[in-house]
Amino acid sequence: MSQLRALDLVRSYGRTPALRGVTLDVDEGEILAVTGPSGCGKSTLLHCLAGILRPDAGQVLWRGERLDTWSEAARSKLRRTEFGVLFQFGQLVAELTAAENVALPLLLAGTGRREARETAVTWLHRFGVAELADVRPGEMSGGQQQRCATARALVTSPRVLFADEPTGALDSLTGEEVLTTLVRVAREQRTSIVLVTHEPRIAAYADREVTLRDGTVDHTGLGLDAPLIGGDR
Amino acid sequence: MKPPALLRLALAGTRTDTARVLLTAFSAALAALAAFAALNVLAIPTPAATDENAGRWSEQYSHALLREPGLRGGTAFALVLLTIPVLALAGQCARLGAPARDRRLAAFRLAGATPGQVTRLAMVETGVASLLGTLTGLALYLVGRELLDRPDERGQLALPTDVLPHGGAFAAVVVGLPLVAGLSSALMLRPVITTPLGVTRRAARERGPGPWAGMLIVAGVAGFIVGWPVMLGRTVDGPYVGLALVLLIGGGLAAMFGIVTGTGWISYTTGRLLRRYARHPAALLAAGRLMSDPWAGSRAFAALLAAVTFGAGAAALRSYFVTQDRLMREESRVAGGEVGDNPFYLSTISLVDLAVAVALVIAATGLLVAVVEGIVARRRSYTALVAAGVPRGTLGWSIAWQAVLPAVPAVLLALTVGTVLGRAFFGDVVRGSSTYAVCEASEALCADPATREQYTRITESAALRAVPDVPLEQLALLGAGALAGVLATVGIGLLFLRSSTATEELRTT
Questions:
Q1: What does pTM read for this prediction?
Q2: Which residue among B43, B319, B424, B431 is the one 20 to 30 A from B453 at the CA level?
């Protein structure tokens, strides 16, 4: 069942068009890969779907409601409760430990300090970096940082996770390890993932693949090469 | 590298780099103005002694600080001291956008630039900006000199607009200031110059700064307390004058340095306490930042704390002079005379207060630069947090906590140390201790040198002693003003938070 829908989205940066009428659906628990060459509008589409950017025209529907008309505060609240966001790099707060970084969304939601930390450590354990709970990002490798960031994005058990090139800064082996864990955890808690990537190898983890070209949907198909991880395809 | 290419590469950069160049020029202009003003005071010629003017006063000036040759050195020194907050401002400006500049210069190294070329690039950027600022300062000084050259009704001048420093002195400032600025910027860029990979990842600080700054404060105050009696016991050419000056100036500087470095300890300790007990994410973020870079507080508040310490010391001196005036009036009343207030010292202290106010404004500007720099340097992390749903208000509160929490105890410490230094300088006010002879026989016996001693009793009149009040009202005003300045600068700095966390940053950072 479709829980997030983009209808004829248009978005430009100045005079440069990024999206020229994109329509797509994201079903509950689905892993959707958005692929395409550089500059085709992948990240812009993700930002519009996540409520980070407002489209110039078109609609973003979240469970039937016009998300694009919501206030900044309401969209922010949605992003920290129902959505999770994961970027390529630069998302951890350098001055906080891994556990504090992961606990941050929980603290924002009003969870008690002790409980937030315990939950954060549990999530770090799921991503195999529990021993780094009291370590700051500057002392971690890129892969370790990305595991912490992924744990933070999932700690609130979001309905949809938006991941923009989440393994782009990692080597292929580490990238696959991070992605395998991410997909397994997402399937366990039926979190949908919108995965922006330009790598076919990463897109193969998805249930479905949407290819953009020059701001429009060029092709939609199944991620046929995707491995079976933690659930049915 | 040819000079045009050097200049082009040195001045290449983003809006932040342009802001840094402009602010560096601005602080250089202020420093140049202070330096020219000091040179101007020193350029006042001392007239030859005459019967009418045994003190060799320069009667063409309305204020004693310029008129009396003995006071002009101190006035020039005070003007040079004004450059301290200006230099602190310049230091803050140099840090604006420093991470991005470091990355750019490291990229030049990767592209094949030699360490010497990168050093020259950094020096040219700061040097050109400082030269522009110094020349602007020179122009402002010359224009201001013309505009303010207005004698009063008695034909006296408020400022020494009738003299000009020596041409060599002008040249020394115009050349020296940009040179010093360029050299210091090259020094700060050493890690980038050494490695083409730029700034390496820093391991987190395991232990915070120790409370050793407290020892500096105690030593500084002790130097001040010991220095003044040594000064009083001096002879003009005696051996103790140098020692007394070392104790007083060294003590004052040690105490000031102790306060500034002590802020690092205060920041770390506040951060540690906050991290232990914080429940709100804003406080947790602030705690993390206070602990990870406790010296940021020292850097940001250095000029502000120096100005507050100086202001508190001036308030203590004012209290001393007010008490002294009161005792003089009492003394003259007992003697049957009537003495009015002596406004000289109080008006001099008012000038010091004015200098402190100027220093506070400059320090607040430096703080604003520090706040904005902190936001801009972390914009990628902030934008990612905003994108993840963290309200900007939470980020704003964390920045405010980060500034205010160490500022409150640091300002209180500066007020206390400044007051103690001011009190130690002169101590209690003592007036009227004198001896006189009382004749206990006939006048003839007391007048006869042979019997005078036998019939004359020496009586000592009781000295009037008073302890100057602690100037609580002025200290409260000064402290409140400093904290209001901190809050105002944080408030203005937060205006940059929205633009720095605009979602476009996700594409560009």
A1: 0.71
A2: B431
